[in-house]
Amino acid sequence: MWCKSVAATFAAAGLTLWVGSQCTRTPGPAEKLLDLYVRPVLGADAGCVTVTNGADGWINVVYTGSRTCEMHRRLNPVLDILALRGKWTFLFVEMGPHRMFGYDIDVGPAPRHSPAWTFCDTNDCQTVFLDPRQEYGSIPGDLMDDGRDSPIWMGDTLRLGRCFAHEIAHGLFRDKQLSDQEAVLIENWFLAAIAHLAVRRLRHDPPPREVVSR
């Protein structure tokens, strides 16, 4: 019974209880990333990447490059981008302001904040995620084609795969406009091909407000 109560507590927080010999082991950062973000997007192809804990809390995701994975890249754009990059690093942080790679970022639930931030240079990409124990919020309705707020957490099966697909897409282009367009495109691929939903995201950011002079 005690073991079940622990599992129920994790389920209420949107997490899986990773059962150890005493049924008390909680998931490490690499396991969280694999379970909540990677598997919902890659499915059976999750084995095409190796996810390990790195230094200072960072999580390393490395493309394995097997023959099967090379064939499957054509079917999954997220896997294809991970393969192009070769290695990607991730970090979970608490809600609030952070200084990362020379930028001040505000990490928190959408739409007032952003639950994820991605930084890429010529060779490497790093993504900072809000700790998944916290609420990720919703994409506001004025960015969606049905006009309704769209939750980022997508249930026990799809979990945070939508957020993962969006952030990986930012790694394809260094130009911000192209990067934002690709992120919306891949997010819509996830909504259609993985989540089997008809709803689409229209744009990355809200349109600029008109300034009315008085």
Keywords summarizing the entry:
214 residues; alpha+beta; five-stranded mixed β-sheet; two-stranded antiparallel ribbon; 7 helices; 9 strands; disordered N terminus
Question: Low-confidence parts lasting 5 or more residues at pLDDT below 50?
Answer: 1-6, 17-22
Count every helix, treating DSSP H or I runs of 4 or more residues as helices. Answer: 7
Overall body shape: globular
User: Using DSSP, what is the number of strands?
Assistant: 9
Largest sheet: 5 strands, mixed
Please outline what is shown here.
With 214 residues, the chain is an alpha+beta fold.
Walkthrough of the structure:
With 214 residues, the protein is α+β, with helices and mostly antiparallel strands. It has one domain (2-194). It is 34% helix and 20% strand. It is built from seven helices and nine strands. It has helices at residues 2-12, 29-42, 67-72, 77-85, 155-158, 161-169, 176-194; strands at 49-53, 59-63, 87-93, 96-100, 103-107, 116-120, 125-130, 138-139, 150-151. The strands form three sheets. The chain has a five-stranded mixed β-sheet with strand order 1-2-3-7-6. β1 (49-53) and β2 (59-63) form a beta hairpin. The longest helix has 19 residues, at 176-194. It is globular. The protein starts with a helix and ends in a 20-residue tail after the last helix.
Topology readout:
Elements: H1 2-12, H2 29-42, E1 49-53, E2 59-63, H3 67-72, H4 77-85, E3 87-93, E4 96-100, E5 103-107, E6 116-120, E7 125-130, E8 138-139, E9 150-151, H5 155-158, H6 161-169, H7 176-194
Parallel strand pairs: 3-7
Antiparallel strand pairs: 1-2, 2-3, 4-5, 6-7, 8-9
Helix pairs in contact: 2-6, 6-7
